[in-house]
């Protein structure tokens, strides 16, 4: 049974485009792809459950290598009849009087202006096991949440609405793995998420210390090089086999070449 390659991803990330490319390039190594909670997006690497993890920053990057992939727009999610329905984009200041169904530290920009935090009138959060429960509370009008757009889309329902919120920093999705365990398979997946073609090869280039300072990596031979060389050899051989032709002597300056008139007589 071939050894598998495990990829973890946090909610809201869609790794399908990368796993599809992997299946085309590495059919010999089956994938094990699974979703993880935000609280476990790094621990799955440290305990060996995954070779790479698609994470939502920030994370504790100790022992890890991290490559940023793309940013996510923050949105506010509220009950369908909420006033945000009338806006294309909501200013964060307009949400200062709202009750946030998250820990305030999850949205520091809101925490710093929130009336319920400043006045110490914030009431305890209701019991909520997961984001489905959170959305149930949002739909009931208990409060709002501010999350990445991908999360709002993933857990969206007909009785809630979402709008982009201005004043909250974008979040970033990244690829993370344990630096000391950068295997060939990990390198292959890094190449896929970075958009490298299957023809590109990291192994083809010599190590940096073996190159002359400032020298470029050697060009990888193209498939057409051999055909071009063969065509050139044919042209050279044909030129060598062709009999030499004496070049016609040009008339001396100031003289005209005699021509023949009609009937064959020569005239000057």
TrEMBL record:
Descriptive protein name: LysR substrate-binding domain-containing protein
Organism: Cryobacterium roopkundense
GO molecular function, one term: DNA-binding transcription factor activity
Domain of life: Bacteria
Skewed-composition ranges (Low complexity): 196-206, 230-243
Organism lineage string: Bacteria, Bacillati, Actinomycetota, Actinomycetes, Micrococcales
Keywords: DNA-binding, Transcription, Transcription regulation
PANTHER family: HCA OPERON TRANSCRIPTIONAL ACTIVATOR HCAR (PTHR30346:SF0), TRANSCRIPTIONAL DUAL REGULATOR HCAR-RELATED (PTHR30346)
Compositionally biased region (Basic residues): 257-268
Gene Ontology CC terms: protein-DNA complex
Domain LysR substrate-binding: 20-195
Disordered: region residues: 196-268
Gene3D superfamilies xref list: Periplasmic binding protein-like II
Family the entry assigns: Belongs to the LysR transcriptional regulatory family.
């Amino acid at each position: 049974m071939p050894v598998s390659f495990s990829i973890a991803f946090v909610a809201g990330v869609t790794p399908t485009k990368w796993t599809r490319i992997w299946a085309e390039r590495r059919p010999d190594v089956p994938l094990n792809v699974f979703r993880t909670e935000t609280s476990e997006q790094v621990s799955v690497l440290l305990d060996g459950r995954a070779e790479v993890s698609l994470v939502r920053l920030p994370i504790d990057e100790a022992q890890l290598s991290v490559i940023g992939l793309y940013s996510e727009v923050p949105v506010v999610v509220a009950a369908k009849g909420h006033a945000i329905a009338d806006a294309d984009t909501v200013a964060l200041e307009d949400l200062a009087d709202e009750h946030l169904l998250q820990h305030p530290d999850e949205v520091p920009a809101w925490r710093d202006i929130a009336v319920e935090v400043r006045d110490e009138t914030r009431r305890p959060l209701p019991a909520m096991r997961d984001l489905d429960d959170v959305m149930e509370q949002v739909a009931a009008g208990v409060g709002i949440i501010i999350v990445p757009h991908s999360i709002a889309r993933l857990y969206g329902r007909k009785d809630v609405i979402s709008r982009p919120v201005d004043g909250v920093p974008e979040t970033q999705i990244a690829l993370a793995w344990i630096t000391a365990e950068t295997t060939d398979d990990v390198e292959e997946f890094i190449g896929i998420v970075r958009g490298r073609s299957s023809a590109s090869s990291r192994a083809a280039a010599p190590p940096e210390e073996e190159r002359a300072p400032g020298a470029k990596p050697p060009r990888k031979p193209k498939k057409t090089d051999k055909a071009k060389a063969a065509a050139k050899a044919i042209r050279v051989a044909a030129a060598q086999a062709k009999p030499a032709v004496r070049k016609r002597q040009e008339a001396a300056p100031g003289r005209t070449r005699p021509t023949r008139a009609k009937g064959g007589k020569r005239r000057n």
